[in-house]
Amino acid sequence: MSVAENLENIKKKLPENVTLIAVSKTKPAALILEAYQAGQRDFGENKVQEMVAKYEELPKDIRWHLIGHLQTNKVKYIAPFVYLIHSVDSLKLLKEINKRALQNSRVINVLLQIHIAKEETKFGLSFNEAEELLKSEEVQAMKNISIVGLMGMATNTNDQQIIEEEFCSLKSFYDKLKTEYPKFKYLSMGMSGDYKIAVKCGSNMVRVGSAIFGQRVYTNH
Ligand SMILES: *Cc1c(COP(=O)(O)O)cnc(C)c1O
Prior knowledge:
By secondary structure, this protein is α/β, with parallel strands linked by helices. It has helices at about 5-15, 30-35, 50-55, 75-80, 90-105, 125-135, 135-140, 160-180, 195-200, 210-215; strands at about 20-25, 40-45, 65, 85-90, 110-115, 145-155, 185-190, 205-210. It is built from 10 helices and 8 strands. The protein is globular, with a radius of gyration of 17 Å.
């Protein structure tokens, strides 16, 4: 199946209010162009250097989503053009994004990454930590960032019930916050293996890579 056919098949399964982000990490620009020519405009990358290189090479109306862990010292490279940063999980990172956005005369949209999976990971906030961040005066005073929602990844398991519980718990938390933070509009959850469950639980932004572009081959490790 071609990239265009894959995109079409996935879009058929998505309700109209769900944004499909084509996760193009490790994939060459030529393949991204294939998706672009099929009408796709939202692309996700998890590495800053790779995203910058692709931004420079590809059409300028692409909306670039940074979906992987972001180090503060790399924010400056994407601040001029990034469309949405999904993976914000610290005050330090928010401060840096706000600073670099100001330097670029932009307001950068971000999502807070919430840790919902059973796996141990350094990344992602607990529900409490996210609420603390949102409430903090320091964050509320930041003029050049806009926190527009949440992102989460479910446990990597075949147990559909665990995945569904995790996604649905994030949806409840999102709904609760949305009543207090009217800027909230995106709940980013769901990947190739679990986006149907995520959508069922109320996701409105899915990040799909291998189901569009094929399996990734990592050659450098
Ligand atoms: C790689 C990645 C995806 C896409 O994964 P697939 O299983 O290929 O769809 C989605 N979200 C994040 C954060 C990723 O790193």
